[in-house]
Amino acid sequence: MKLQIDNLDGNGAIDYSMAIDGLKPPQVVRKLNVPAELQCSLLADGPEFVAPANGARITLAKTSGQDVFTGYLSKPPAFEYLGWGERRPVYRYNLVALSDESVLDRKRLPTRSPFVARTAGNALRQLTQDLLPGVFDTTAVQDVDVLASYIPNPQLTWSQHALALALQCRGSYRAMNGTLMFAPVDAAVYTLNETDTNFSPQGLNLLPVDGLVNDVTVVGEIEPEAYVKDYFVGDGLTLKFYLSQTPFRSTSLTLFDEEYTDATLDVTRWNVTDPAHAVAVNNGQLQVAGGTGADGATTVAFVEQIELGGATVLQHGDVSFGAGSTGVLGGLYPGAVSIAGCFAGFQITPNGTLSNIQALVNGVATGAVFNTVAGHLYALTTRLYALEMFRREQTFHSPANPAGSGVGGAAVSADVRVVLEVHDIDPTNPATQVAPSTVLYDNVISSAPGYCTYALINAANMQCEIAFTQVTQAADTEVRSALPGQGYNTQLVGALADGAACTIDSGPSLDFFTAYVPAPNQLIEVRYRGRGRSMTRVTNPASIAAQHNGADDGIRGVLRHVKEPMARTSVDCENAALTILGRATAVAWAGEYDTWSDFLPGAASDIFPGDALQVNAATRGAAFQATVREVNIVVNDFADEHCSYKIKFADDNAKELAFQFDAANLANLPDVSTLINTQVGNVYLADLTAAEITQVGSTTLSVDAGIAPPSGGGVEVRWSDQGWGPANNQNLVGRFATEGFTIPRLSRVQTCYLRQYDASVPPKYSRYSAALHVDYPS
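^ that's the sequence the OP posted. Answer follows.
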């Protein structure tokens, strides 16, 4: 073997093999999804010895060129005085090195927006590129699986992110000799068979434990629950209207706020395609002067996709036009950036030396044309409202559901209300700063895409400057109002300076600004999602029956709070529970195997954490596949390259590989619905997302459920959101077989809850209720 150290002093790699301390052989510890560690000791007994420098590059390799370890010294060498040699004092230098990724861990990650609908491998390549562009070979980084979202917290190191990404997709990574590898675990399988001639019986230590689980309760995060619609009426004085529930997300979160203060666009935020060199940043302005004349040729696009879930506000900035322009500003594109493929945006067309602004929806210019004025600024804003907060389910993995075929991950369909508005600001008139915006488009688009590319600029020939760009996850509350005898208009929720009419207070309440006090008899509708704890309980009746024996009822139950991958909804909880049940076997296996490098399982030349070990030991009743979690290597014979290996392995049931659990912060576990494993995914009917009150009388309320009830079923209405089912009439308002029906109105403030049901026995119901709340004078 050869131990080489490059002190990074310009002298290159030096062979330190002859300085290895024979009494303390080199040891390499490889652990799954954490940096590998090398410990070795050198003896210095001559003046020619150069003490290794902190941060030095170190490699341990066989004479064949096969690397055993590559990395960097993680701290200055510690030395021991051993006495006086033939010519001078003798010292032992104890070295500790970490594998190649440690050079990435030394650097702070840039602040990034969350990765959205990216693969785990793509995210890992991006983080690597952010820190050390071109230093690591990432061609061996596989995509592995798509993640709904991932937040690259800059407080964490690169290797901590690599661990988290690997956990979410049941993958493994390692860095060796400048090459980064990322793949599903168990991609390489080695057989450890007790009938092999090289098998070492004394080296195998198995630790079987009872791993059977047939009753799983999974607790997840706070989730969006009821589809709420609150109805109020103005009186010309009241500014505050109390909501019936706390909205799922009642505060705003800024995804990014770009003010163009740097000399160039931030590559961690923007992708720029600019063959005509029309885009520049000067004096805090993003400037566009020209283009190729072709649609989609000159673009400035956000590096992440925008998820069309909940309420999202995209402010495309204060825009000033220097001349007539052609292109699209603030476009959202489900596919390639093109006018024909634009889901929503602002189409800019020339009007002499000025420009026209018009809504662009599904590739078609629509609605009124807004004419610009020389010297004015135009704040262009897109507001998106969807009742579904997440447009993709979380994905969970197990040995039976590896990367690419996990449980969950389905797309979530949703209608999205799109509001496109222009705020005309005259710099010479301060009153225009808080003047109402002009709404160019306000409508619901059915079955909207889940994710879009956000191209701030799609310039055929643009002549403009943009002062800022901001994307915010707003309070998930849609407010609409109608003056007597007129249609409903969307009221903008946010800051007064942004042209909004109202805001959401933590009360929870809807608060109008004094300039927008609702007029007498002005009708107000507020739509949002309620909130509650996601959880579920899933059982395997066949397994329970098989384990039943006398006083033992056969139940093997656990309660788990899933921390990673995050269970954001009850659907995610069900999929997580199904995954846990699917991998829970009667015996969970873990163990260790000690052998020499000459006799590795499956005639392997080396073995790494993340490889699979197929253990066949009939005399011990063991036949299973496990994942290697740790490999400890001791170079006992440095000259002849004989190493002892301790291989530690476990299956997913003995040691979690694709889940991270922690304690649920629940004082009392609320009632949780129980499903059997075969029911997951087919026990609930569609929610009544479009239910509404169509008329409010002094003694009655007219209700439209939004869809026709299923044949033989109907719509169940209750005064409180509990007790659903034919056996409970305690809080029942009624069961109705038609889409429209009337219920009694008993007070000024009244709430009712709706779910549809079918003719099954027992009947299936909607998962979440529609909550209709009225606060009208009698």
